[in-house]
Amino acid sequence: MSELPEDLKYTKTHEWVRVEEDGTVTIGITDHAQEALDDLVFVELPTLGQLVAAEEPCGVIESVKAAADIFSPISGEIIACNDKLVNEPELINSSPYEDGWLFKLKPDGDSQLIELLTAEEYTEILETES
Amino acid sequence: MGKKTFLYEKHLQTGAKIIDFHGWDLPLHYGSQIHEHHQVRRDVGMFDISHMTVLDLTGQRVQEFLRYLLANDIARLKMPGKALYSCMLNEQGGILDDLIVYYQSDNQFRLVVNAATRDKDLSWINQQAEPFAVQVKERDDLAMLAIQGPQAREQLKSRLPENLQSTVMALAPFYADWNNDEVFVGRTGYTGEDGFEVILPEQPAVEMWEALLAAGVKPIGLGARDTLRLEAGLNLYGMDMDENYTPLESGLAWTVAWSPTDRNFIGRRALEKQREQGELRVMVGLILRNQGVLRAQQTVQVEDGGIGYITSGTFSPTLGISIGLARLPAGIYEKVMVIIRNKPLLAQVVKPPFVRQGKACIELTN
Predict the structure, then answer these.
(1) Residue A57 belongs to a domain with what CATH number?
(2) Nearest chain A residue (CA) to B227
C-alpha cells in the first residue's frame, strides 16, 4: 500500500480532506478508493454555490466497474470544482491526492473536523478491511 | 481459493489483479483495463482463457447427435476445420449455453463452452449423448490462449510449431487447424478484432505465453475482455441471455437453422411456436447520449410506456461514451429513456456492433 499523506484527514468512506490556510477545505478520494474502483470514466460533481450536508451524497464517480457516491465529509458551501475531471476522470487514478481533487468547500463551522480520521487511524481501518 | 490456470504464477509476476470468476482465480487487469482495451484495438494483446471448457466429442453418430443437440446446424460445416457458433437449448427453447463447435473429422468434433455453465453443460450433454453412443471428454489438461488485435497474426506466426505456421497463417476467419501434438489454433475470438484462439497442453502454453510476453505482447484481463466483446456487440451468457430467453429474444435468431425443416433439434418446437405467436422481445444496442454509464439491470422506458432493461452496459473506451445491450418489448425504436439513479436519460437505439476492427460502426444522431 502506498504511503498516506500525513497532512490530510480521512473518512471511513475513503475521502480525504485538506484544510487550507484560509479555512476552506479540499476534498478528494483516497488512493485506496481509486484502486478499488479501477479506471474512472465519469465524474458528476456538485455545482458551485451548492450547500452540501455532511455525510450525504453530493456527486457520483463511475469507473469501468461501478458507480460510487461521493460523500461530503463536512457541511458547507461548494466554492470550487475540479472541472478538469469532466474530460480527464483518470486524473483521480493517476494523482488522487493532487491533480485528482474533487471539490473545495467553505465549512459551516469547524467542529465537524474533529470527526475526521488521521492518516494513522485511516490506515488501521484499511488494515481491518483487508 | 479458486481454480488456477497453468499461467496463474505468470499473471502474479506481471502484476495482475486477481478476481474470482465462477470459481476461477483470473486476472481482472494488469494495471489499467482501459489501456489494455486500447492495446487490443490498436496493436495486439493476449488473454489466458484456460477457464473455458473444452469438450471433445467422438463417435460414429456424433454428427447426428450434434444436429439434435444444437440450434445451429453442423451440416453447414462442409470442410474439416470449420467452426460454427450455436446456442444449446432446453426443450422450452431457453438458452442453456452458447458455444463454438469445430468440425475435426466425421467422427470427432470439439466444443468450447462457457466456464460458468460447465457443470450444467457437462451433465446435459452427457445425458443427451447417451442414446447416440457419443463419448464426451473434457480437456482440462489443455490451456487456452487468445491472441487478438491487428498485429495478432504477425506476433503469433513465429511462436507456432513449424508444422502449423503456413496453414494457420492461411486460415480464413472461423477456421481452425491443429497438429499431432495437440496444438489447435482457430481464427476466432471475442473482441471484434482479427485474432486467434489457441488450445494446447501446459508446457507449450507456458512457452508461448512467455515468448509473446518477451516480444512485448501485453497480457489482457477479463475487464477489457468484457468491454471489447460489448463494443463488438457480442452477447455474454448469464448477462445478455440465459435459460429464461430463447435465441429469438436474444438477438441470435441468425444462429437458429430452421432448414431443413425435418431436422429435429432440442427446443425446435418451442421456437416455432414462439415465432408463430410473434410479438417477440428485441435485443438492441444503446448509446447513452448523456453523461453517465449504462449498467446491467437498469430500467429502460420505451415510447408507449413499455419497460425493458439493460442486459450489459459499460463505458466504451473506443467511443468515449457509454454503450449497452438492452432487451425491450416488441417494437422498433429510435430513442429510449434509461433510468440512472432515478433520472431518465436519453439513449439512442443502434444495431450492434458498436466497434469492429478498430473502427466505430455507429453514427450518432442529433
Answers:
(1) 2.40.50.100
(2) A64
